[in-house]
Write a structure and sequence with these properties.
This protein is an alpha/beta fold. Helix content is 37%, strand content 19%. The chain is elongated, with a radius of gyration of 20 Å.
Length: 249
């Protein structure tokens, strides 16, 4: 299954899209433009904490297929995002043992798509990402997920810490996948309300997040390579959760 990003262009069109609550994946702005409408758009971008890139006009011409973009092009996300607090409440009301996945500024869209696919297959109730600094939910993400991005709730939060506090306030334990521990994931009870945190490809889970989690866990590495691809590691941990919940009970 594939999905296409919807492209909108023109300053007024993008301003109205933001004001109407449209989910915008990313905004591209032309270098060196400083009109009144540009200033208005930049204020809205800052207010709504939207992801932007400053690019040459040639990039905007390609994105808009040479239409009159006025120095601004926006990509609308192909999926809708969920409110985390409402999703937690819904999951608990359905008498499920919550299983959430937090991605701490994962940046590669293919890793993201692969993780979404595995999360859907392992019964994850929702994926949580940060608004800024995370891989976008775009057409490539959806394609790599084999369409799972349409089937599993994805929540965007201002900061990962906000999600941790909200989950912990709902009696959902948090466990970070990190090599900075001696505890193996097999020693952690995943058959309870839990949220698993996976870090970015280059630095892992942010140290400030590690200070707040309930548990830290790692996978055993028996070879000479010091780390696994994040999507592979995530799959191994999620299926350990499945083993504990389905086989062990």
């Amino acid at each position: 299954m594939t999905a296409q990003n919807t492209t909108i262009f023109g300053l007024r069109a993008i301003i109205e899209a933001i004001q109407s609550g449209t989910i915008i994946n990313k905004i591209y702005l032309q270098k060196g433009i400083n009109s009144a409408l540009h200033i208005e758009l930049e204020k809205l971008i800052a207010e709504h904490k939207l992801t932007t890139s400053i690019v040459p006009v040639e990039k905007l011409n390609r994105l808009s297929k040479n239409n009159n973009h006025q120095g601004a092009v926006a990509l609308i996300s192909p999926v809708s995002f969920y409110d985390l607090e409402q999703l937690i409440e819904k999951t608990i009301e359905e008498n499920k043992i919550p299983l959430f996945l937090i991605l701490d500024q994962l940046s590669d869209v293919r890793n993201f798509g692969a993780i979404i696919r595995t999360a859907e297959c392992t019964g994850v109730n929702g994926i949580i990402i940060q608004k800024n600094g995370s891989a976008p939910v775009n057409a490539e993400t959806v394609k790599t997920s084999a369409g799972a991005a349409f089937k599993i709730p994805i929540c965007k939060v201002d900061h990962i810490k906000d999600a941790l506090f909200l989950l912990q306030a709902s009696d959902i334990k948090t466990v970070a996948a990190t090599e900075k521990t001696e505890d193996l994931v097999y020693d952690i009870n995943l058959n309870q309300p839990i949220a698993i945190i996976m870090g970015s490809e280059d630095r892992g889970v942010n140290p400030s997040i590690l200070k707040l989690v309930d548990f830290k866990a790692k996978l055993p590495l028996l070879g000479e390579i010091e780390s696994l691809n994040v999507s592979v590691a995530c799959g191994a941990i999620l299926y350990e959760a499945v083993r504990q919940r389905v086989i062990v009970g």
